[in-house]
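Hey,

Quick one before I head out. I ran the complex with protoporphyrin IX containing FE overnight. Inputs first:
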Amino acid sequence: MGSLFQKLAFQVFPYIALTVFVVGHGYRYYADFYQWNSRSSELIDRDSLKVGITMFHWGIIFTFFGHFFGLLTPQDFLNKLGITSEIHEFVALYTGMLFGTMAFVGLLILLKRRLLKPRVHAASSTNDVIVLILLVFVVFVGTYNSYVKRFDVLYTIAPWIRGIVTLTPDQSLMNPVPWSYKIHILLALTLLGFSPFTRLVHIWSIPVTYFLRPYISFRRRFVDIP
Ligand code: HEM
């Protein structure tokens, strides 16, 4: 029973979540294009937004890149660059603690604002609140792991994720992994599958071209039209 659960959780569920993620974003882009945005609440209440949104975004963006490069780059390759597993673990742990805490505190501020500021609350959908609560859990368990559990992921979870990406999944790598890490992964996969149907679609619309556009959009007209 235990191993059946593990197979479903770490061999089948990741592909379900990833498929829903990809197909869901495609569907949402074409079927609901005009709702593809961050549902900004800045106009409703700007002052209460600043601290929480800034802490959360910087925390989550660094955490995202840390997970991406830290887990997908094989340790054997890093060894050749002189980055030993001790250095890798050290950097992962302490940056995880720093940015995880930032994201977590930011999320608590955002959640409090969304529930307790009447105008923001009135403009929120259930979906907006669920996203924040799910993020609170994912980030809390992840940060708890880096403070308390400190399990060596480099030869367990990291090769398991690479196996998922390269379509050669091996769920047995997850056998020695503590439950708190497994819960973090399952919650994160759930968030991944849910994200196309939420405001999180804004992540894929970073306005990079904004920095390339001409600085001046309007200029004075030299000739007066009679
Ligand atoms: C560079 C990438 C990103 C940009 C440019 C960006 C931009 C924004 C903007 C403009 C808002 C609206 C703030 C407002 O209410 O005015 C927002 C809200 C939000 N973003 Fe991002 N975001 C990015 C990445 C992310 C990531 C990676 C996540 C999470 C995985 C995320 C999660 C959220 C959430 C949950 C909210 C709603 C916060 C609330 O409840 O008010 N964002 N983002």
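Residues 38, 40-42, 49, 53, 57, 60-61, 64, 110, 114, 131-132, 135, 199-200, 202-203, 206 surround protoporphyrin IX containing FE (CB under 6 Å).

Talk tomorrow,
K.
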